[in-house]
Amino acid sequence: MKKFFLSLLCLGVMITSCNNDDDTVIEEEEIETPDEEIVEVDIEVQNFFWQTLNLYYFWQGDVPDLADDRFDTQTAYEEYLSENEDPEALLENKLLFSEDRFTFYSDDYTTLVNSSAGVSKSNGLQFGLGRIEGTDEVFGFVEYIVKNSDASGKDIKRGDLFVGVDGQTLYSDRDNPDDNNLDLLFGDNDTYVLNMAEIVNGGISPNNKNVSLTKFEGLVEDPIHVSNVITSGDKKIGYLMYNQFIAGSEDEMNAVFAEFLSQGVNELVLDLRYNLGGRGSTAAVLASLIKGTNTSDLLFKTIYNAKLQAEFDSSFTDNFFVSTTGTNDNNSNAALNTLNLNSVYIIATEGSASASELVMVGLAPYMNVIHIGGTTVGKNQGSLLFVDDPENGNIYSPENVDDINPNVQWGLQPIISRVENSAGFSDYVDGLVPDIELSEDITNLGILGNADEPLFKRAIQEITGISGKSKSEALIPANLVSSSKLHDPRNATLLLNNSVPSTKIPLVEKK
């Protein structure tokens, strides 16, 4: 495979270009510009956005302003960037494809790094938001509480309801979703008071109870929320609730499966109902713990834009099952304690996306995947974090933080690929439809990991052969308007850290 060098266009000083045949960098003549009074515009951020998307963006060929021949000269390119003084407006209005739902960015790249590592400023309350039937009013319900958080020390638990914040009733206009006051929950206010509620005569009513919660920096959530083993007849059923595919959690997952093996587990219920994604390499470890460690079996393939796809060989596109936890992020590279199952029961809902969907889709050609819950988000795309670091292809790496342009601390995480399984299946942008449809019931959310929790109970029924209804039996179903996770696209990620270009590809050349 050829190697290339990536260098940013010099702003009004020098152009560098690449000779693809001998990998040498050629300096061309300095461009002379007429002497005239020019109002200078700082275009470093705009330049970083354009260069990154022109090279890596999955839809580069569908965005006219990202075309390789969009600008004839360096001067024309700089003038274009200068005319777009607001980098966010440039990105949103001219550089992103209209069908892109999942590209995101921040003016501080460290917030994106922390998000992918499960570190956040949070009070530890994970909640869903539904609509009170026949109104624009919104109610919240507690999905779970993060361990060692502010909420974990307060009088609030899974299944509790709330209808207001700081005395204001929550609402979201059905005809105009932008008209809402949900920023009371998602805004910059570090402390707020939840106005609690309860079920009364089949409806949701305030109960005069209030709970004050405060967000703190640096909360680290353990992605393994619950694991246990249930015995039912001759079935030993392992249960794992995994809430984010975080690199560095592979050894911990492996230990859970070692416990499953020691207890003779022969069936598995994997609960991904609140898992919006994360690392593709971590998804490969989880899939291998379930199915097996034949490293010649293809788990998924990544498809890039035409420009990159033409340069990549299978080492960049093919992702196989694995046999160890790996060495990344302080993992021990331990052999996997795989269950070698022929079937798996996966709980997934409208709160499941990306790497969660990838595990389901990737396993499907090799085993029977029984999906219980609701239709998933539908994210068949991978992304990567980029920073203004041209010497390293703009790809973020913690080892190269000193190389990041000190004037540009932005982080950009665009969609760079589509994923498909070993059978070539990739068409799930509308979500994965469950085999057994069952919504969470606000009146009976149950205890996660308990055999009587409705979705887990339904999985046990399927495993043991006890018949159950296939449609939702919920009295008040959790029809999500939003949630503490879904409101932020940064949570729905498939990070392709093990399947991205590590060489430097040339930027479009100017004359």
Describe the protein's architecture and organization.
With 511 residues, the chain is an alpha+beta fold. It folds into three domains: 16-100, no CATH class; 121-219, PDZ domain (Pdz3 Domain); 224-378 and 428-473, 2-enoyl-CoA Hydratase, Chain A, domain 1. The protein contains eleven helices and 25 strands. Strands 5, 6, 7, 8, 9, 10 and 24 form a seven-stranded antiparallel beta sheet that branches. It has a six-stranded mixed beta sheet with strand order 12-13-14-18-19-23, sandwiched between helices. A four-stranded antiparallel beta sheet has the order 17-16-22-20. Helix 1 packs parallel to helix 3 (87-95), helix 6 packs parallel to helix 7 and helix 7 packs parallel to helix 10. 44% of the residues are buried. Residues 1-31 and 498-511 have low confidence and may be disordered.
